[in-house]
Amino acid sequence: MITASVFDTREALNEATLRLMRTVISAGRRGPTALIVPGGRTPRSLFESLVAQPVTPAPDFYLGYTDERHVPETDPQSNYALTRDMIRTLGLPPSRVLRVRTELPLEESASRYHDAWQDFFDLGGTVPLALLGLGDDGHTCSLFTPEQVDACGPDTFAASVRRETGPDRITVTPALLGRVEHVIILAAGNEKAAVVDAMLHESSPVTAARAVARAPRVSLWYAPQDGV
What is the pLDDT of residues 83-97, one digit of tens each? Predict the structure, then answer.
């Protein structure tokens, strides 16, 4: 079941999200913990806020990504590039950044990303929070169709997604999202109203709903007005 919270403004949505991010980053637990973040326009201001007002990460805190475009890390489309300043400000060493190795061929890149998560879980790692974006067409991460969701292996944490319009992608899978304690799907703007309604009310779930179906707790945070 997906629970919904509606915020009056994008600013209010960001403030609530940022509070949770700060808690996950700084709260020490036994064993490694990870925060999974999306790319694109939605989280940019969140990363900038953590640069402006940083928090001290817990010793075993890791950062991971919902998905990545198969482009060089210097490319403006790179999700990793969006977080580089935040990583530097938080002082995270490379060993605690679970990023997609886009310098490798697509299938090897996906396989290596799966391996990184497998190693994390083998260490006893947990994922308290994953933040996901939501496309106007109902996609999340880089899972664009129900068929792509269904094609993900039950024990595979990352998959490649080929795009005719490019660039190709590497994405997390329902198997990984199913191990996240709390998945929050972030959406803002009136153009998302239809897909938000479908996520909450249609009996046949959209792609994003299929992708998070194995997660124990899923919330949808929505700001209809994409502004402050």
Answer: 999 999 999 999 999
